[in-house]
Amino acid sequence: MLFSVLTAAIAPGVFLLTYLYLKDKYEAEPIHMVVRMFLIGVLLLLPIMIIQRGLEIWLGDNPVLHAFGLAGAVEESLKWFVLYHIIYNHTEFDEPYDGIVYAASISLGFATLENVLYALTLPADFGSLMFRALLPVSGHALFGITMGYYMGKAKFASPARSSRYMTMSLLLPILFHGLYDWVLTYFDREWVWIIPPFMAIMWIWAHKNMQRASNRSPFRFLPREDEVKL
């Protein structure tokens, strides 16, 4: 039973990361780098929980503050900080789509451990785990795609535009994350009519951004290597 619960909790994050990794058409990232960023995302959960708890004690538990500050700003800022300081200047970050892969790795590592803890500490059945796979885990993937897309644009943009894209790579995930949490908190039952369309629109936009990033790859005119880089 425990094995089944853990598998169900881990599978969505691994599946989404595998999907995003395989969508890299031209220059696949080394698997060890992707796994490393995924595990860093796992490790981020503890400091984020500590910071959130400290701020909640200090500032209170206002719904808007919780959604945009404790959840959106704290979580996305720490992910952005790690992505920027570890990956942004790394030699493996050599095409715009790489930002999406690495940002999603961090976000899904965080979301996967969060999902595991939920499954272990709260009553979890198939329906609740499916809910978390379709919404919270998927949401973290979308926030990561947004962050990575704009950081990828910043990496290869002119200096005049780079700072604008870097700002967007931080502020847009915070905004979307905050909106997502605020809707779940503020709308008691009506959120079921709001969140699914919101997520659908986000996924459509994410796919377009993934395509745009892929089309700007400097390797698109070179013969494709089909093997996965280890």
Question: What does this molecule look like?
Answer:
There is one protein chain. With 230 residues, the protein is an all-alpha fold. Helix content is 80%, strand content 0%. It has 7 helices and no strands. α1 packs antiparallel against α4. The model has no long low-confidence stretch (mean pLDDT 88). InterPro entries: Peptidase_PrsW_arch/bac, PrsW. It is a multi-pass membrane protein. It is an enzyme of class 3 (hydrolase). This is Protease PrsW. One of its GO terms (molecular function) is metallopeptidase activity.
Let me know the largest β-sheet.
none
Distance between the termini: 33 Å
Strand content: under 5%
Assembly state? single chain
From the spread of the alpha carbons, the general shape counts as globular
How much is the radius of gyration in Å? 17 Å
The H-and-E topology, N to C, reads as HHHHHHH
Alpha-beta content class: mainly alpha
Function: Involved in the degradation of specific anti-sigma factors.
InterPro entries: Peptidase_PrsW_arch/bac, PrsW
GO molecular function, one term: metallopeptidase activity
Main location: membrane
